[in-house]
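Researcher: Hi, I'm a grad student and pretty new to this. My advisor asked me to get structures for two proteins we've been looking at. I'm not sure of the right format, so I'll just paste the first sequence and hope you can take it from there.
Model: That works fine. Here's the first sequence with its structure tokens right after it:
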Amino acid sequence: DEGWSIHGVISDDRSEAVFSLMRMATSPVRPIHAVQLPGLDPDATYHVSELLPAGIESPVTRSTQFPHSWAWWFDGVTLPGSVLSVAGLRYPDLNPERAILIELPRV
């Protein structure tokens, strides 16, 4: 889906990462496809969760249209780096010109 811009920063030892997922344009694809996060250690396990500044609430709300597409979002999810890099994960859909940050510490 070319409506997304995804950028990440991964520590040298691949023990943690932060990715930005930005919706650039509207897309007819619903729910969104799984997004791969390249560069993670395939043999490590990561906990994926939203990264928010202190005092800021998440812009993501539970979807009534696609309730299971990103049900993991509110508590985070723990997955192998190989799954996140190859199969990917579905993230909440956003309106254009909106972004979310996710943090991935190795567990």
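Researcher: Oh nice, that was easy. Here's the second one.
Model: And its structure:
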Amino acid sequence: AFVDRERATVTVSIAPMTGRLRMRLAVTTEGLGGGSTALVDPGNIEVVLEGALPVLNALGTADVRATADLIGRVGTVTVPVQVTVPEGVTLVSVQPQSVTVTITSR
């Protein structure tokens, strides 16, 4: 018989529930030359993140960054948005994936 009437071994795995979180983020610029200003359009993007619910629930806007790299760029350019997320969080989508930046010298 496969059943021992006096003992049973049960294995239970416990894992946090996973979910998704939608966030609106301001796009910041990196690598802008001194004396220049940048106008980012649109100024905000929307991201969808996935991960364990306790991790997602603890996230703030300071934990997820959206940046546009402007090193060596001049005039009006379209650049991809780079999104940085903390460990344990997966980036599912970014809308829009690129922004238009107008760089002007002062």
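Researcher: Is there anything I should tell my advisor about the second?
Model: You could mention this: The first helix runs from residue 53 to 58.
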